Structures are given as C-alpha cells and as structure tokens.
Amino acid sequence: MGGNNFMNRKVLVILLMTIVFLIGVPQVEANRNIFNNFTKLYNVSNVSYANLNTCKTCMASTTPPVSWNKYGLDLRSNAAFDRNNSIQAMKNIEPLDSDGDKFINIDEIHNSTLPGNESDFPMISITPLQSSPTVLTQTQTPTGTEPKPAYTVMNGFVTIFILAIVLLLRYQKEKE
Predict the structure, then answer these.
(1) Model-level pTM greater than 0.90?
(2) C-beta separation of 161 from 17 below 8 A
(3) Per-residue pLDDT, 146
(4) Diameter of the chain by CA atoms?
(5) How far apart (Å, rounded) are the C-alpha atoms in residues 57 and 53?
C-alpha cells in the first residue's frame, strides 16, 4: 500500500510539472515574438548590436518573478501593442525617453544602448550625434488607464507548483 501512495505522489508531481510547463509555453512564445519583431525592425541580429540582441531590451528580469523594464512597460502600455505583432507599438515609442536618461529610445537603439536602462546611454562626443531623421507621432494611451502589472501567467503557475509541493510534503509528513 505504501508503494502505491509513492506512485500516486510521483504521478501527481509529474502532472503538475507538465501543466506548469505547458501553460508557460504561450508566454515564452509571445515574448519570443516581441523579441523577433524588435530584431527585425531595428536589424539588431548582428554582433555590433549584441547589447540589444537580448531579452534585457524589454525585460528587467527574465527569471521568476519576471518583470518588464521601463522601455518594456512603455511598449506594453502603448495602444498599438500586440504580442504577436508589436512593430507599430515599437515605432510609436521611438520618440519617448522611457528610462529618463535624456536620450530618446530610437537614439539609444541606434547607439546600441538599452532604452529601458537609465545607466546605459550613448556616449556623448564633441560632435553632436544626429537625431533620427524620421519623426513619428506617438499614440497616446487613453486617459485613466494604467500599465498592466509585470506579472505573468508563469509566475502564478510557479507559485501554484511550489504550493503543491509544500502541500505534498505536509501530507507526507502527516502520514508518518
């Protein structure tokens, strides 16, 4: 009878891990779409843009609990934002200074610095850098709306998974 309980717990743990993995896949895929749209729009897939060719461009943290940086939050709160095609939202926030370092996002991107990190900004030279020739209008976020929290579905399922393990261990301890 004891071996049967062990097998039931083992199956339960494997089932929970599978559920957590499968539910997290759409979130990872959505973020991959955003990343791919960014690298395509700004052609940052080559080595000279290595600083921007990472998830750090939009994310402050990529390990649970994940969170968006200031550029990522501006991107997500833009009215044109769509996880499957975020290019228009990226264009809309180019003239913003998301991280508040006095350099607009597009200038930071052109200089391979992170537009969501105020401590990473273009080097100032004696000859002024040319601003981007393209002037885009910003799409305004409707009044009274707040950016969505940076929590993801994956955070909730990691919490549920940890809770399930704790409950399983407590149940096992009670059985002894």
Answers:
(1) no
(2) yes
(3) 43
(4) 80
(5) 8
Q: What are the backbone angles phi and psi of residue 68, rounded to the nearest 5°?
A: -90, 145
Contact assessment for residue 40 and residue 53, using Cβ atoms and an 8 Å cutoff? no
61 DSSP β-pair partners: 67
Tell me the C-alpha distance between 167 and 20, whole Å.
Answer: 16
Say whether pLDDT at 140 is over 70. no
Q: What's the CA gap between 138 and 83, in Å, rounded? A: 19
- C-alpha span between 7 and 3 (Å, rounded): 6
Distance from the Cα of residue 16 to its chain's centroid? 24
Rg (the chain; Cα; Å) = 22
Percent of the chain with pLDDT over 90: 25
Whether 27 contacts 20, CB under 8 Å = no
pLDDT, tens digit, for every residue of 83-119? 888 999 999 999 999 999 999 999 999 888 999 999 9
Decide: residue 29, CB within 10 A, 0-12 exposed, 13-18 middle, 19+ buried.
Answer: exposed
